[in-house]
Design brief:
22 strands
C-alpha cells in the first residue's frame, strides 16, 4: 500500500508543491509524478473501480492518474477553478470544493465537460471539507478563510441540493479544515481553533450525523506535534489518518488512541492523503 500526500507550495505553506509517495511504514518514495500539470496540488480521491487517483491541481485543472503515476484523464485548465478537496459522490461523480467561488462542482468520472455547480456560489463564507452521509445529505464544513472571513460550523444540505441549508453543528471549540464520514455514519472533522496561530488547539472531532452533538474528541496526547491538521482518510485496516504540517498522524478509530506520527517529513505542508 502506498500513501500519497499532496504538499502545498507558495502562499499555501511553502511546502513541496508536489504529490509525494510513501510506503506503509512511512518511508519516503519520492515524488509520485512530477508532471508540470500537478502544481500546488490539493484534494485527492481514489476511484477503486477504475483503479485511478483523482487529483485537484492548483493549475486550475482536475487530473486522474493510474497506479504507475501516469496522467490518463485531464479536464484541461478551467479559468478560475481554484479547486480544494475532492470526493466521489453517491452518483459516482467527482465532487470538488471551489475556494474562490465558495461552492461545490461535480464532474463525470471521465472528466468530460466543464463541470456543474451543485450548490449556489457563495453558499458558505469559506468551505472547509464536505462529505455525503448515509442518507445522501451533504455535510459541508464552513470555516475561516486565509483573510479571516467566515464562521465555524457544519451545515447540512438536503439530497436534492435544493432544500434550505441548515446548521447542524455549533461547537465553540470547532474550526473545521476537512470533513469525513466515519464507518459508523458519524461526521469527523479536523479542527484548528482558532484558525492560524501557532498555539491553536488542534483536534479531530466526531459528531452525530442526526443531531450534530459532539460524540468524542481525538487528540495527539503528546504522541505527535499535530500542527495545521488537514485531510482525513481511513486506512484499509480501519485506522484514521490525518495529514498535518511535517507529518501524517494516525489514530486507532475504535479506541480513539493516537498512534503517533506515521510519516515525518520536514516542510510537508500536507493538504490531502490517499491510499493507492
Amino acid at each position: 500500500m502506498r500513501i500519497l500526500v499532496t504538499s502545498a507550495a507558495g502562499a499555501n505553506g511553502n511546502g513541496y508543491g508536489a504529490l509525494l509517495a510513501f510506503d506503509s511504514s512511512g518511508r519516503s518514495l519520492g515524488v509520485f509524478n512530477d508532471d508540470a500539470r500537478i502544481a500546488d496540488p490539493r484534494g485527492l480521491a481514489v476511484d477503486r473501480d477504475a483503479g485511478l487517483l483523482f487529483l485537484n491541481s492548483g493549475a486550475n485543472r482536475v487530473l486522474a492518474l493510474d497506479t504507475r503515476g501516469k496522467i490518463v484523464r485531464d479536464t484541461g485548465p478551467i479559468n478560475g477553478l481554484n479547486p480544494g478537496g475532492g470526493i466521489f459522490g453517491p452518483d459516482r461523480r467527482y465532487y470538488i470544493g471551489l475556494r474562490s467561488a465558495r461552492t461545490i462542482m461535480a464532474f463525470d468520472s471521465m472528466l468530460h465537460g466543464p463541470g456543474e455547480h451543485v450548490l449556489t456560489p457563495g453558499i458558505v463564507p469559506f468551505p472547509r471539507g464536505f462529505a455525503f452521509g448515509r442518507d445522501r445529505r451533504l455535510f459541508l464544513g464552513s470555516g475561516i478563510g486565509p483573510s479571516g472571513e467566515g464562521d465555524d460550523t457544519i451545515v447540512a444540505i438536503a439530497p436534492d441540493g435544493r432544500g434550505s441549508l441548515s446548521e447542524l453543528v455549533r461547537d465553540s471549540d470547532l474550526s473545521p479544515l476537512d470533513l469525513l464520514i466515519a464507518p459508523n455514519g458519524n461526521i469527523l472533522v479536523s479542527s484548528e481553533r482558532p484558525f492560524g496561530p501557532p498555539d491553536a488547539v488542534t483536534t479531530i472531532r466526531e459528531y452525530d450525523a442526526n443531531d450534530g452533538h459532539l460524540v468524542r474528541v481525538f487528540s495527539p496526547n503528546g504522541q505527535a506535534e499535530f500542527r495545521r491538521p488537514r485531510g482525513l482518510r481511513f486506512t484499509p485496516d480501519g485506522d484514521l489518518y490525518c495529514v498535518a504540517q511535517g507529518e501524517v498522524v494516525g489514530f486507532d478509530f475504535a479506541s480513539g488512541t493516537c498512534l503517533g506520527a506515521i510519516i515525518r517529513l520536514p516542510r510537508l505542508n500536507g493538504q490531502a492523503l490517499a491510499f493507492f
